[in-house]
# Entry
Amino acid sequence: MNSRDSEHMIAELHEKEGYETTTDFKVADLILINTCSVRERPVHKLFSELGGFNKHKKPSAKIGVCGCTASHLGEEIIKKAPYVNFVLGARNVSKISEVLHKDKAVEIDINYDESEFAFKDFRSSPFKGFINISIGCDKACTFCIVPKTRGDEISIPDALVVQEAQKMVDAGAKEIFLLGQNVNNYGRRFSGEHEKVNFTELLRRLSKIEELQRIRFTSPHPFHMDDEFLEEFASNPKVCKSMHMPLQSGSTKVLKDMKRGYSKEWFLNRAKKLRDICPEATISTDIIVGFPGESDEDFEETIAVMKEVKFDQVFSFKYSPRPHTEAEAFTNIVDSEVASDRLSYLQALNNEMIDEKHAKLLGNVYHIYFEDLHRDGEHVAGRSDNNIVVRVKGREELLGKFANVKITAIGRTILTGEIIA
Ligand code: SAH
# Structure
């Protein structure tokens, strides 16, 4: 989502102000830092990065702090780092050219309606297209700062989404990536009057774009995984068979304290249904350990769910108390060392499970869509429909193309393969 916001700002600056991008900040006239605030560490990193930029930048260069940390810290950023020229919240990226000309501007209205702005003609790559289908988040998860930095959830009208997808396909993309905090809650609220189209229907409408071959999305919310959605996921050949199911915890008690809206049983029921109707699908998840009140037994339940669902990838985090969240005031804190031990245990198990799965892939052949050039300039990386990431020897010519690839070497995060005729 942040990558897409950055694309928006670059587009606007290019169009209205004539800026070009550079990877060398020492020659830049403007340095933008697009921040995350979902956990605490990136916030600390912001101030150390800012110091470095300020020291070595061109004296005339401006610095802008954008994104979620900008939304919640606002003018505190300028107080702490007075050389910062402006602060622009995650929900205000459309105002980038406005704040650029106002020294010390702070634009952080989290309910500013910029849903119309969600489409700007800038893509970092013509071969993969991010499309915002909603902005903001209507959930009230007690650990999460996102609703306080990105505001209420507004869906983008489906006609605009389809039009944008068509434009991207015309420009050469064969795959699109739909973005939203809860994509399968799509259609609940629009800006102004609009036909109520749900996410399943949106997927159907997008699949009618003939040259479009693959549709990916993130993140769906387990609470909204009804049968209609799972069945469309399984039966629509254009929908990629990889599902992100953010579990957060395997204990119903903890899930309740987190206000996630589902129980362990509901989650397991949905995962089972998905495995039954779509056995080829890979499932990834997010897990938080050390949430206030998480006992050893609660943690054991999380591990049991991991083993039962056999996730293909687990993104795991130690709980980090965030400002403006309900859980910030919870007093039943888990000892930091205990939480770190739980995280290490969980991550070791995840690695073991991934190694076991990957070992079985050696020699398999996958239909891969190539989308990224490796830094070494000699390899390109791509994905299978079910999100297996493979690297092959090759150059730019392969980008935006499909090929059958045989897996020849196994790694934990990336596999290596050879294109076969
Ligand atoms: N909308 C998505 C979440 C986006 S944030 C959803 O509801 O699933 C991405 C992930 O960061 C979350 O899934 C969660 O696992 C993690 N996260 C969010 N707040 C956190 C916190 N306070 N501490 C640790 N991890 C957190």
Q: What stands out?
A: The first helix runs from residue 2 to 17.
